[in-house]
Amino acid sequence: MSILITNIKQLLQVHKHNVTIVKGEEMKKLSILENAYLYIEHDTIIEYGTMDEYHPIEAETTIDATGRIVLPSWCDSHTHIVYAGDRTGEYVDRINGLSYADIASRGGGILNSAKKLQNTSEEDLYNQSIKRLDEIIKMGTGAVEIKTGYGLTIDAELKMLRVIKRIKQDTLAFIAPTLLAAHAIPEEYRKNKEEYIKLITNELIPKAGDLNISHFIDVFCEEGYFDIEDLETILKAGQVHNFRPKIHVNQFNILGGVALGVKHNALSVDHLELLNDGDIEALKDSNTMPVALPGCSFFLGIPYTPARKLIDAGLPLAIATDYNPGSAPSGNMNFIVGAACAKLKLTPEEAINAATINGAYAMGISNMYGSVTRGKKANFIITKPMNHYREIPYSFAHNPVDQIIINGQLL
Ligand code: NIG
Ligand code: FE
């Protein structure tokens, strides 16, 4: 299988030498080739250049991309797309004035989704979830992290992991599974959180480790959920089974999860709607990617991550959808890129860097995904005709995607 794309108006994120992360000032630069061609064989980028340098190449499929932008597929490093049913009832309750915390305190929220998931067969859960994946692939996502966390029992968490494994086997997109070991405290453990944490550390983590599906571990570090001591206990238990942290921190309160994540070499710290100077200091000289989730801020009406503070301090930033039934029921990365510009005050170049190479970094795959570099995976978006790549965020909430190539296959 070989594909040649010619007359590309702008080919984005082109790097001769493999980059794996962009930080601070560098995020403002997006390396582009005007009037370019791109040649891929099987699942790999073989060659690219400007049309001036082009010499005829025989390919099985040739695409004339006149007037179109070609860029690496979106890398969505934070989702919860394996879930059962929806929470439209709670959505209306929130419109009518209840807060996310009010809903959770009545046994709704994550507990509501867990009940639904526990009562859903593995087959049905797979069918509901793969449909969401197919939907986001069509919108340009080529690599996606998927978390467990709606099980809240050993059996249901392992069921989620098996569903993610099956999705991974059945899709061309890259899937990064994460064990969201501690997402909420089940009703029956409300008065005995320690017992639940023991269940997580002594049973769930070892069993999940044995399945060998996921190599990341997540904890929702938040008031009313898991505090900083719980976080440390769970991350330490995860380390024993080679799980690297990717954690939910600073969504509604600052508990110190950023520094603790850095201390445990977290690959990413996600949400960060609240952020203090200590958090920024902790992230400097770390290998930890801060991840903003503007779809969650939009949907819940909570503050947007102060992304400028992070980038202006010389740090990297990734953006992701957080696609989940409670706080962000959309996996549209095009919208996320638009929201990052309009609300996080990222430039289009910063937003595209955050949604491609840095998103790939936040899944541990930026050596193979997220840029146009010889030898990297052939995952691309070919846009509808447009004048400039800036139209991608500018025309927010429209769909700029015309065709996609995933793993070298034109879909
Ligand atoms: O990332 N904050 C924790 N977890 C999800 C939401 C979970 C839910 O409400 O179902 C999030 O926002
Ligand atoms: Fe999340």
TrEMBL record:
Q: Where does Fe(3+) bind?
A: 78, 80, 248, 322
Source species, domain of life: Bacteria
Q: Which InterPro entries match?
A: Amidohydro-rel, HutI, Metal-dep_hydrolase_composite, Metal_Hydrolase
Q: Which Pfam families match?
A: Amidohydro_1
In the UniProt record, does the keyword Transport occur? no
Q: What is its EC number?
A: 3.5.2.7
Limits of the Amidohydrolase-related domain: 260-410
Could you tell me which pathway this protein works in?
Amino-acid degradation; L-histidine degradation into L-glutamate; N-formimidoyl-L-glutamate from L-histidine: step 3/3
Which cofactors go with this protein? Zn(2+); Fe(3+)
* Keywords, comma-separated and alphabetical: Cytoplasm, Histidine metabolism, Hydrolase, Iron, Metal-binding, Zinc
- Per its database record, what is this protein's job? Catalyzes the hydrolytic cleavage of the carbon-nitrogen bond in imidazolone-5-propanoate to yield N-formimidoyl-L-glutamate. It is the third step in the universal histidine degradation pathway.
UniProt xrefs under HAMAP family: HutI
Q: What is this protein called?
A: Imidazolonepropionase
Gene coding for it = hutI
